[in-house]
From TrEMBL:
Residues 5-334 form the D-isomer specific 2-hydroxyacid dehydrogenase catalytic domain. It comes from Candidatus Segetimicrobium genomatis. The keyword Oxidoreductase applies. One of its GO terms (molecular function) is NAD binding. Residues 119-303 form the D-isomer specific 2-hydroxyacid dehydrogenase NAD-binding domain. Belongs to the D-isomer specific 2-hydroxyacid dehydrogenase family. InterPro entries: D-2-hydroxyacid_DH, D-isomer_2_OHA_DH_cat_dom, D-isomer_DH_CS, D-isomer_DH_NAD-bd, NAD(P)-bd_dom_sf. This is D-glycerate dehydrogenase. Keywords: NAD, Oxidoreductase.
Length: 336
């Protein structure tokens, strides 16, 4: 009898094809939400292996729901603190858990897509593309060269990068190609030769906030960056400046951001991440105040949403399950 694999949401077909070669595969069909704990319990009772996409939380009750559960594969890397799965319960019950490994080749594709999403948000805000779309679809008479849709553009503007990790580094040549000046800050400043090669200028965080037309948050999230950007930081920004966050929601004091947007302390924002999203919260729930604003672009933490990135991500996880089913030891197997 073929083993049964349950997949937490629709994923690209190449990954499903890999699984179907060795197992019966069931996919949770919804595209608009993550699974509830009750749904996970029912799924676990009927499956041998669980394929868990980001944003889902595998609790003690889910793992205990099936004493014969043979493995759980998480699509993301293992972090020092993982609230997305109860590893202690899995270990106690002898349920193998695998994380994405090696992470870097997969993450490079995700970083590429996240970089492009960030650039897209800058361009959307600079040229008011979403406003222009709404205006054109409104059914009203249209005016060519209308002043209703004026934007700052990007040529000659300053982009400030808070953090210079993999995503931000990929952004630099794109920003330069748009003829923007690029400021950056990070814990350890680059060597002068590297700065010249990249065409970037170092500045401290406060200086970046004061000078930039587009502030892009790209810090890693950790205790030292928790709520690093708040009311004081938004007050430093120019009233014509835009704030883009494709890093992590909890680096930002979200109520302070809401106030800064409502009061027009800043001109607008592009947000792919929020305070309330898994694993810190059971589900993604952007502040409802954002829904009322016409100066904010929202995306559901979907930075890696290209066919290339998502296919490679899910194929890598499928390989881990195939290895488990075959009796092998996946590279991402948790051993401690």
């Amino acid at each position: 009898m073929r083993p049964k694999v349950f997949v937490s949401q629709p994923i690209p077909e190449p990954a499903l094809d890999m699984l179907r070669e060795v197992a019966e595969v069931t996919v949770f069909p919804r595209l608009d939400r993550n699974m509830s704990e009750d749904e996970w319990i029912m799924a676990a009772q009927r499956a041998d292996y669980l394929f868990v996409m980001g944003g889902n939380i595998i609790t003690t009750n889910v793992i205990k729901a099936n004493p014969k559960l043979k493995g759980i594969a998480m699509v993301h890397r293992r972090l020092p603190v993982n609230n997305s799965i109860d590893l202690d319960t899995a270990k106690a019950l002898g349920v193998p858990v695998v994380f994405q490994y090696p992470w870097e080749p997969v993450y490079d594709r995700i970083a590429e897509a996240t970089c492009d999403l960030t650039i897209a948000m800058i361009l959307d805000l600079a040229y008011r593309l979403i406003d222009a779309d709404r205006y054109t679809r409104s059914g009203r008479t249209l005016q060519e060269h209308t002043m209703a849709l004026m934007g700052p553009g990007v040529t000659g503007k300053i982009a400030g990068l808070l953090g210079l990790g993999k995503v931000a580094l990929k952004m630099v040549p794109r920003l330069r190609a748009l003829r923007m000046s690029v400021l950056y800050t990070k814990r350890t400043r680059l060597a002068p030769a590297q700065e010249r090669e990249l065409g970037v200028e170092w500045a401290d965080q406060s200086d970046i906030l004061r000078r930039s037309d587009f502030v892009c948050l790209e810090y890693d999230y950790n205790p030292s960056t928790h709520k690093m950007i708040g009311e004081r930081e938004f007050a430093l920004m120019k009233p014509t400046a835009y704030f883009i966050n494709t890093a992590r929601g909890r680096i930002v004091d979200e109520p302070a951001l809401v106030r800064a947007l409502q009061n027009r302390t800043i001109a607008g924002a592009g947000l792919d991440v929020f305070w309330h999203e898994p694993p810190g919260s059971p589900e993604m729930a952007p502040s409802e105040e954002f829904f009322k604003m016409d100066n904010v672009i929202l995306a559901p933490h979907n930075g890696g949403a290209t066919w290339d990135a998502r296919t490679e991500l899910t194929k890598a996880t499928a390989r881990q399950i195939v290895t488990l089913i075959g009796g092998g030891r996946p590279e991402g197997l948790v051993l401690d």
